[in-house]
User: Fold this.
Amino acid sequence: MRRIVFAAVAAIAVSTGAAQAADLGAARVAVPAAIAAPVFNWTGFYLGAHVGYGTGTANWTYLPGGATVSPRPAGIFGGGQIGYNWQINQAVLGLEADVSAAGFRSSRACPGAGFTCESRTDFLATFRARAGFAVDRALIYATGGLAVGSLKNRTFDTATGALFGTFNQTRVGFAIGAGLEYAVAQNWTVKAEYLYVNFGAGTQAPGATALSRTSDVRIRTDVHTVKIGLNYLFATGPSAVVARY
Assistant:
């Protein structure tokens, strides 16, 4: 009986060793690793151009008396922008400055007979912070900051077109808005943006009104703009900063 048991154990040992030897000679097949799709990186400086349409109100209030007229300047504008984005996980923070030549103009009949009140905006610039949420190539953001505008207000003799009074100001106000930006290529993005710009109120010097050469006019100006833009992004790295907790 012992001989039979020993013979069986020996046979099992021989077959196991042969199987292991066969395994050692077999080529190992590499398991393919999962390849992660690259995520778009918004970090970096960018430079671009834009074009859009704006409309607003220049609310003239004559002092004393309180008579009012409200030209509504409107027209197209265009210019350029420069900025920087910093992405942390899906949050994107940044700063942007833009300048635009504008053609906003409107005129209304002044209070009192025979005169026309005209308001124009020829130049706009903003300096804003941006804060957004990125989903790969799409960025939704809010923005706000300072605005600078070249505002021109004039009164004319309606019959002759002769200039009666003029008052030009470069005013500082604020701008707030929101936008959507999308990367159409590795370094190119397009955006659509809305801004509300408020320049507050400024008082014209005497002699610039149609009612009296000694009365003042307080003019409050605001603007709504919608624009589309194209940016070239100078990326600073292969991926966004990942915050660790």
Observations:
- The first strand starts at residue 44 and ends at 63.
- The longest helix spans residues 2-25.
- The CA atoms of residues 110 and 116 lie 5 Å apart.
